[in-house]
From TrEMBL:
The gene is Capsl. Pfam families: EF-hand_7. Coiled coil: none annotated. InterPro entries: Ca-bind (IPR051581), EF-hand-dom_pair (IPR011992), EF_Hand_1_Ca_BS (IPR018247), EF_hand_dom (IPR002048). Residues 40-75, 76-111, 112-147 form the EF-hand domain. This is CAPSL protein. It comes from the Eukaryota.
Length: 209
């Protein structure tokens, strides 16, 4: 686990649960319900939608949308679901684009935060192919400090894999982390950190940027 992330994750989940009782905005309520599950919460919902998108259209109709929310155990009544669906069905054709939906659901981040996240991603993506893999991590992330490596439980590759799993989509851990997955993860972490300055310091320390 990278420095400080587990703690931020817990803080963010607690904060999200607390804010849930205060907000009436349906999109914000859905966002907070996802974040209450930690940084990977929004990604998890995306994964549920992806499974349901049988025809690979990357769109959902209302029935699929509600089923996805139910499968992911989101507490949302039908009226609220309809309201959210209407907000995202901009052209009123009865379907929503779920990539757009997930990007909007992601907690908003300033450009300064996005920039530092991209810097960290580029540093980790040593081969520069837009995906972080075990091969990329070998020169950047030192597995030897990991307690499970030190006590002989894990090989170096297992440490790398566990590290990648933090950022990977929760139900679809393929050992590859895309820019979008990395950004989604940090949008979650970012939600628990009030100031840009603190977020940037945390990222710089964590990734030695």
């Amino acid at each position: 686990q990278m420095p400080g992330t587990a703690r931020h994750d817990r803080e963010m989940a607690i904060q999200a649960k607390r804010n849930l009782s205060k907000t009436t905005d349906p999109v914000e309520r859905l966002r907070l319900q996802c974040l209450a599950r930690g940084s990977a919460g929004i990604k998890g919902l995306g994964r549920v939608f992806r499974i349901m998108d049988d025809d690979n259209s990357r769109t959902l109709d209302f029935k699929e949308f509600v089923k996805g929310l139910n499968d992911y155990a989101m507490m949302i009544d039908k009226e609220e679901a309809q309201e959210i669906f209407r907000i995202f069905d901009k052209d009123g054709n009865g379907t929503i684009d779920f990539d757009e939906f997930l990007v909007t659901l992601r907690p908003p981040m300033s450009n300064a935060r996005k920039e530092i996240i991209m810097q960290a991603f580029r540093k980790l993506d040593k081969t520069g192919d837009g995906v972080i893999t075990i091969e990329d991590l070998q020169g950047v992330y030192n597995a030897k400090h990991h307690p499970k490596y030190q006590n002989g439980d894990w090989t170096e590759d297992q440490v790398f894999r566990a590290f990648l799993d933090n950022f990977d989509s929760p139900y679809d851990k393929d050992g590859k982390v895309t820019m979008e997955e990395f950004m989604n993860y940090y949008a979650g972490v970012s939600a628990s950190i009030d100031t840009d300055v603190y977020f940037i310091i945390m990222m710089k320390n964590a990734w030695k940027l």
